[in-house]
Specification:
Helix content: over 70%
Number of helices: 12
InterPro entries: TPR-like_helical_dom_sf
Number of strands: 0
Shape: globular
Radius of gyration: 22 Å
Length: 241
């Protein structure tokens, strides 16, 4: 549908004399692709239309609708209170469905990111603790790659920014444990391990735990070396075949 729409606009713009609206729309879309930057006004209008279409045809709590609403706000929203209310309404609406799936985990993860990005660290931690403190939600979150890692990471980030370093260290280690478990289940996780080790090392240095920080640094270097060796093996196999 996206390709068909773009082709239609391009054909329409080409058939009209200069100055017509369709030509201007096409120029904006074309320039966004060429320059890698979307015109803010056009992007905002496209976002609103996409959200309304998804809400109408897929439903207000469909995963795509929620994703577009969150991305739309993160890209164009400036009112913190409005953003908080929007996400709270999402979460309450999902909770009313009495199920817990990727949508719930994703909304809560994005809420934690939202709160932390606006310096509301206690609220960010509270959202995460609602999940990791609930055995059922915790178990369900493990089904979705990267979600539980990011929840623990946001909890660690909240505590780190607050200067609660001991708690931050524990949450970074919890995040790493999840990432390593995902690797053992062959569900990815290597990028998360490297990310987690970087932040754990910083936390330990802030605590003055230099020896332990060096151990973490060595572990990170080991993971990098292992990743490069794996990449080399894959390249050699692809060349042979």
């Amino acid at each position: 549908m996206e390709v068909a729409l773009v082709k239609h606009i391009a054909a329409l713009a080409g058939s009209l004399p200069g100055g017509k609206p369709a030509r201007r729309v096409w120029e904006l879309l074309r320039d966004s692709v060429v320059n890698g930057e979307m015109n803010d006004h056009l992007a905002l209008q496209c976002s609103r239309v996409a959200i309304e279409v998804c809400r109408r045809y897929l439903g207000p709590y469909h995963g795509k609708t929620l994703e577009l609403m969150i991305l739309g706000y993160l890209n164009f929203g400036g009112d913190v209170e409005k953003g908080e209310n929007m996400m709270r309404e999402m979460m309450e609406g999902l909770d009313a469905l009495q199920v817990f799936d990727e949508r719930h985990a994703g909304v809560r993860m994005n809420m934690a990111v939202f709160y932390n990005s606006h310096g509301m660290y206690d609220k960010g931690a509270e959202v995460v603790l609602e999940v990791v403190g609930n055995e059922w939600m915790l178990r369900e979150s493990m089904r979705y790659h990267g979600v539980l890692y990011r929840l623990y990471w946001e909890l660690a980030n909240s505590r780190h920014k607050q200067g609660r370093l001991v708690e931050a260290e524990k949450s970074y280690r919890d995040a790493l444990e999840v990432a390593k478990w995902e690797i053992s289940e062959e569900r990815g996780g290597r990028a998360e391990v490297l990310d987690g080790l970087v932040h754990l090392e910083r936390c330990l240095r802030d605590m003055g735990e230099e020896r332990e920080a060096e151990n973490v640094k060595e572990e990170r270097e080991m993971w990098i070396k292992d990743g490069l060796e794996r990449a080399g093996e894959i390249e050699e196999v692809s060349v042979v075949f």
